[in-house]
Amino acid sequence: MIPVYGAPLGEIGYGNRFAPNYVVRPALFTAEECERLIERFTTRHAEDAGLVGEVSMPDIRRTDVIWLKGEDTDEWVMRRMMGFVADINREAFDYVLGGFDEALQLTRYRAEERGHYDWHSDRGGQGFGRFRKLTIVVQLSVPESYEGGMLEVNASGREEAMPRERGTAIVFPSYVLHRVTPVTNGVRHSLVTWVHGPSFR
Questions:
Q1: Which is nearest to 108 in space by CA: 195, 192, 193?
Q2: What are the start-end ranges of the E strands in 4-103?
Q3: How would DSSP label each residue in 89-144?
Q4: Using CA atoms, how far apart are residues 178 and 172, in angstroms rounded to an integer?
Q5: Smallest Cα–Cα separation from 66: which of 39, 117, 115, 106?
Q6: Which residues, listed in sequence order, are joined to residue 66 by a DSSP beta bridge?
Q7: What is the mean pLDDT of residues 173-191?
Q8: Closest by CA position to 148, among listed 176, 109, 177
Q9: pTM score of the predicted model
């Protein structure tokens, strides 16, 4: 396989032999870079996150977010993600993609709020959600710093827990069902983004 940023692709989950359900890329971000992103929560205003269309439903989703909207200090993050997506799409998915039409999102799940996001897909609704094709989640927290908060995907009728290692990126089609289980101790941080394109045929 083609190395991406100095490391090979990790686990690839196939629901069938034609297309992957998800791809895991270890160490897309270094520990220092993960800390830089987590520190945004001390310098910027976080807002309660809703569902697609900004609908608030705490029983389904309870987390807060910061949007990275093109500040100079965030440009390196977008450059990293753009290069990574180009490589991972060529290597594993081969989708027709347009670009990043939404800002990158930093998420924080806190045990004191039982932070979680129940089963959902990222594709659908109105606006940008209709055109999401790939979802990328980067694990930012040290795994031992929180309990619960498992990212799980269910692309083929089987729930699969994703790796928790810091800096790891998990990529899956945006129509795939996934969730973050309740955080029961500590805080889980992640970086989430979506890549858009023409509708699936």
A1: 192
A2: 12-14, 20-25, 47-48, 61-62, 64-68
A3: IIIII-----B--S-EEEEEEEGGGT-EEEEE-S--SSGGGGGEEEEEEEE-S-GG
A4: 10
A5: 106
A6: 106
A7: 97
A8: 109
A9: 0.89
